[in-house]
Amino acid sequence: MHLLYVFLALLSLSDGFDPNCPGRCSCDYVQSVQCYRLTEVPSAIPPTTKKLYISHSKIQHLQLSNLTRMLALEDFILLASGTESVENDTFKALGTLKTLELWKNKLRRVPSALPASLEVLKLNDNSIYVLHGSDFEGLKKLKILELKNNLISSLSDIFSSLASLQSLMLDGNNIETVAGPLALPHLKHMSMENNKLHLIPAIFFTSLQSLQFLSFSGNLLTRIPINLPKSLVSLKMERNQLKVVRFRDMKHLENLSHLYLSENSLSSIEGAQLLANLTTLELSHNQLQMLPLRFPARLQKLDISNNLIQRVTVQDFQDLRDLKHLFLDNNIVSLFEAGALQRCSQLSNLALEQNLLLSIPLRLPGTLARLDLKGNAIRDIAERELKDLKQLQVLNLRNNKISALDLKALEGLPRLRHLYLDGNPWNCTCSLLRAREVLKAKGTDVRGGQCAAPAERQGESWMSSKKIMRQCEHHLHLTEKSKETKKKSKPEEHSTIRINVDDDYYDYEID
Ligand SMILES: *[C@@H]1O[C@H](CO)[C@@H](O)[C@H](O)[C@H]1NC(C)=O
Ligand SMILES: *[C@@H]1O[C@H](CO)[C@@H](O)[C@H](O)[C@H]1NC(C)=O
Ligand SMILES: *[C@@H]1O[C@H](CO)[C@@H](O)[C@H](O)[C@H]1NC(C)=O
Ligand SMILES: *[C@@H]1O[C@H](CO)[C@@H](O)[C@H](O)[C@H]1NC(C)=O
Ligand SMILES: *[C@@H]1O[C@H](CO)[C@@H](O)[C@H](O)[C@H]1NC(C)=O
Fold it and tell me: Measured between alpha carbons, how far is 142 from 164 in angstroms, rounded to an integer?
């Protein structure tokens, strides 16, 4: 807060002391001018200005005369200002212009005669409905072109003069067809999410030899395009209409490490092991009933949540030594063989919530830091199920059918920090209250939930009820001993690693 005041004070000082700074604008030492709520481009802007930023203004028509004096301009940004048209040649003479951003306006076409110096052109959120080859003529230095959320319906080879283009964003248009080849030898990123594509001709990719990141998510594609460039590192095909994936057509993609296929209609992914260097595979919201015979051997993250998987067997995950994150939640898994993940010696995050498990799977890898079993039909917790999980920090058993806790099972989890037990039909005996003492002494954060039995304790919260505490007082001679445990476990706390939440959006707090 304090810093903000200082900043504002400085801002108003600089305003006040710079006689050249126009009204409603602030000007700073690097020849940068920022203006809000204007009705015209200020005529008094210093001619040395390098960056002009205007937003939330009303500038319906931008005319050539409005910018003619600004010959040093490098960045021109006109945002959310209702701009409908730009007079021909308005930017032509600005020979040092590098960045032109005209976001959130009402433009119906790309401004004409853009200067050859341009490196970044962003025209997102306008009403541009057609692109012409002449729009981009001579832009040999252009590296980034963004036309997201416009009304473009087709794409032909209009970008051929963009010899330096590295990033092309066309998400959120109405593109139904593309013709090729797209001759962009330096293009690295291309995104055409949320369009209406149903077919990508093979020839489209023949001159995209540097393409690394490609997204066609949110289209109507029924197959993965063939002839994808060998340079590809990441391919997004989420929210399409894929029924099968022919991995044979992709096996030349030796650098492909990320493949996103969620929200399609896949019923099988046999052959995926051909993508030997894949590290991330996302398949959630498909119709998979079985796990494939083999997975790509280098997978680190596998998401098969929201499918129809029934069984997990010892054969399924044999090769996956690098696997760290496995999402199998929201399936109908009722059989999970003992030791099915034993070979996954890096696994730290296992999501099995919302399945049909009757018990905690046996012989889970000792590397697990987070185990989610919420919303199954588990009836009890046995010592042998949890005894190897020395790294476990988060255990979610919410909404199961557990009524009693085995103290030994919990004592064997030295690093447990968060335990979710609510939504279970707890039988609040005094021995359950002992578990409460043990957990409190360990410093575990517990959501206990309410008692279902005995009748007189129904609805009481067993982790905090004073009433039950009083009734059980004479049973709780454990208190002294558990204090000792706490002391002993202190050194452990120092070595506690933070739960790695880097690339997983997975939230165990969700009810
Ligand atoms: C542009 O300049 C013309 C005069 O040259 C002026 O009439 C008009 O108001 C200016 N428009 C904007 C948006 O500044
Ligand atoms: C502006 O340029 C386009 C083509 O670049 C041309 O068709 C149009 O007639 C021009 N408009 C004016 C008013 O000169
Ligand atoms: C694959 O990646 C490596 C390392 O980044 C790179 O040297 C190689 O050129 C890439 N292969 C292709 C076909 O782009
Ligand atoms: C995996 O990547 C390595 C090096 O990046 C490469 O030599 C190898 O051919 C790739 N394997 C496959 C099957 O693409
Ligand atoms: C609760 O536990 C007590 C003592 O073990 C037992 O007698 C009783 O039947 C249990 N109640 C329910 C509903 O399971």
Answer: 6
Q: Tell me the three-class secondary structure of 277-309, residue by residue.
A: CCCEEECCCCCCCCCCCCCCCCCCEEECCCCCC
Q: How far apart are CA 390 and CA 224, in angstroms?
A: 43
Q: Which atom of ligand 2 is nearest to the CA of 88?
A: 1
Give the tens place of pLDDT for each residue, 349-388.
999 999 999 999 999 999 999 999 999 999 999 889 998 9
Residue closest by Cα to atom 1 of ligand 1: 66
Q: Read off the pLDDT of each residue in 411-436 and give the average, rounded to a whole number.
A: 91
Q: Tokens at residue 244, please? A: 């099968």
3-class DSSP assignment, residue 205: helix
pLDDT tens per residue across span 393-405: 999 999 999 999 9
Alpha carbon nearest to ligand 4 atom 5, residue: 255
Average pLDDT over residues 76-94: 95
CA of 210 to the centre of ligand 3 (A): 9
Q: What is the pLDDT of residues 281-315, one digit of tens each?
A: 999 999 999 999 999 999 999 999 999 999 999 99
39 close to ligand 1 (CB < 6 Angstrom): no
Please give the CATH number for the structural domain made up of 313-474.
3.80.10.10
By alpha-carbon position, which residue is closest to atom 5 of ligand 5? 429
The predicted model gives 14-18 an average pLDDT of 49
Q: Does 29 have pLDDT greater than 90? A: no
Which residue's CA is the nearest one to ligand 3's atom 3?
A: 255
Domain assignments of the chain as residue spans, ordered by start? 313-474
Task: Select from 400, 403, 325 the least CA-distant residue to 357.
Answer: 400
- Ligand 2 pocket, mutate which of 63, 85, 86, 88 (most atoms under 8 A from CB): 88
DSSP letter (8 states) at residue 461? B
Count of CB atoms within 10 A of residue 509's CB?
A: 9
